[in-house]
Amino acid sequence: MWHTPIFSGQLLVQSTFAYFCGHLHTAHRLIPRMYVLQPQGYLELELGDWRDGRYFRIVAVDHDLVSFADFRMFHGTQQTTEWPIVLVTNPKDSDFLLPHKEPMYRILDSTHIRILVWSLYSVLDVSVFIDGEFQGNATRATPSGNDLSPLYVLPWNATRWADRNIHEIRVVATDARNNRRVVSHQFVVNRGPTWNFTRLAGFALHPDHSFNLKLVFYLLEGIFFCFLLMPRLIPSKFSRNCFRSSRFCVGLYRLTHFNPCYIPLMGFILYQCCGPTFMGFLIGYHFGVVFSFGIVVGTTFVVESLTYVYEGIQLLIFVILYVPLPVWYLGKIRAISRMESVNLITTEDNTPSVCDRNPATASTVRVQQSVPIRCVGRIPLALFIHAVIFSSLQLLFLIVTIGIPYGALAAFLSPGRLYPVALCWFIALQANEILAHVPGT
């Protein structure tokens, strides 16, 4: 967020060469080179994750021309494979040239190829090739008598390659441990930059993903909302033919026409749009509330698009992993009677229990049964197992996304994550009631 006038921010963007960042990294290595030229005229250069991959970046400014290279640090037996590290600063990689912001003419005016080389061991050889033709071995430049300078130079005549074509420079560096590094890139001398960026990187970095995430989230919410609303809107004379076509349709009809379950289902959709997902101490001792559309910390509201991702995942978990089985179960052709929906206490030989043989003691035995046991006894076995599995997955999702990052208090104060757990058990508990009260159209 800019804290200066808007025109100052625009001037800053106009003068910016590159945005070095590590938000998307390499998209789990799906896009190793996540680089792109933004419409505003600056480069956005994502760097791989240091925590997971130990990626780091070296940036050099050579006569106002900015060059960079990304490397990966290894440990143990693989440590020698990272050396030597090589960065060619002149001629610069034509993919990252910005003629409107850099003095590109200095490549043509330059007298030397310049290369930065680092290694834990003595560098023995730095060979230079252009378009496959050997140009010579670069030698160490020692300004002010510094023998440890990483700069290696090789004289060249830049006008030789000023033919408005694209050329390739390749550098092979070898150290005393016989470690060998080969780097290459395209360069130009008197023509425009190449800007060869992958379409996948452009797709990841160019669009306004904040808007896209909102669109996808509300689209998913709208689809599920209509999915539950349509069976209620279709007139009964048409619904008989439509919903008798499959068991799934019969189950959907019954679920959406039983208000004690239908209202909480619709409430879940609306709650995801406007209700708090969780609450807790988000930053130090600052208590905050997280919604799908942003975060409130103290008296400050922060717009955050990543919350739409988690809420979208939550909706898909509920719709894909939970809803289909109860709907399928409720699609039974035969509706059971009210008496069949109550589990009688029987002995092993199916004779009435002591509760039925001795009316005087019946009330005493019923009192001894706890409410949870009576409730669990009313849940069909298939829905009971399904509810246990779904609850376990939902609680795992809660722990991973809220409990571990923000603590036990935030996990406990997570109505947006606990709502689906309560809803799944409530629907399972009401399954026999739905079959008893709602006919299959």
Automatic annotation (TrEMBL):
**Annotated keywords:** Membrane, Transmembrane, Transmembrane helix
Keyword Signal in annotation: no
Q: Which Pfam families match?
A: Ig_TMM62
Organism superkingdom: Eukaryota
Parts of the chain that traverse the membrane: 215-234, 278-302, 308-330, 381-406
The residue ranges of the TMEM62 Ig-like domain are: 82-190
Question: What is this protein identified as?
Answer: Transmembrane protein 62
- State the organism of origin: Clonorchis sinensis (Chinese liver fluke)
